[in-house]
Design goal:
By secondary structure, this protein is an alpha/beta fold. The protein has one domain (3-135): Metalloproteases ("zincins"), catalytic domain (Collagenase (Catalytic Domain)). The protein has helices at residues 19-30, 46-57, 82-91, 96-111, 119-135; strands spanning 3-8, 38-44, 65-69, 74-81. The longest helix is centred in the C-terminal third of the chain and has 17 residues, at 119-135. The protein is globular, with a radius of gyration of 14 Å.
């Protein structure tokens, strides 16, 4: 299993019982890469993610999750924005935990080289996300 380091920058994430254990479990369930890999997770506020999104992607707004893939055994970083996550969960009528799990699965797959730039890539990634989410006990995140 990969080594997962988790930093909580937004206190709202603490309302989850054992947020670090939750994140580790989800990431380990989605990880199929090298067992000695290292992943960093930051549970942040929207402002922090907004700054990263603007700097690295040229998008002047916060987003729900950012993944930064690295080379070698340091697989990369996953950064989740609390406000965007909470708002999307409400709008999509999903539990906060289910939506967080989905974003972590999504980010973890990005670190393993999956993407959704084309329809074929998106279909492959979404199918895998759905299988992992169901394995974790959640519904298909793409079900409408």
């Amino acid at each position: 299993m990969p080594t997962v380091d988790i930093q909580i920058r937004d206190k709202h994430f603490w309302f989850l019982m054992r947020p670090k254990a939750f994140c580790r479990h989800v990431i380990e369930s989605a990880w199929i890469g090298h067992p000695d890999a290292e992943i960093s997770v930051v549970l942040a506020d929207d402002d922090f993610v907004h700054t990263l999104n603007k700097h690295y992607r040229g998008k002047d707004k916060p987003t729900n999750v950012l993944s930064f893939e690295n080379e070698g055994l340091c697989a990369g970083d996953i950064v989740v924005a609390y406000g965007v996550l909470a708002r999307e969960a409400r709008e999509q009528h999903k539990s906060f935990r289910a939506h967080l799990a989905h974003l972590l699965v999504h980010g973890t797959l990005h670190l393993q080289g999956y993407d959704h730039l084309t329809e074929k890539q998106a279909q492959k990634m979404e199918t895998l996300e759905t299988k992992i989410m169901q394995k974790l006990g959640y519904e298909d995140p793409y079900k409408e």
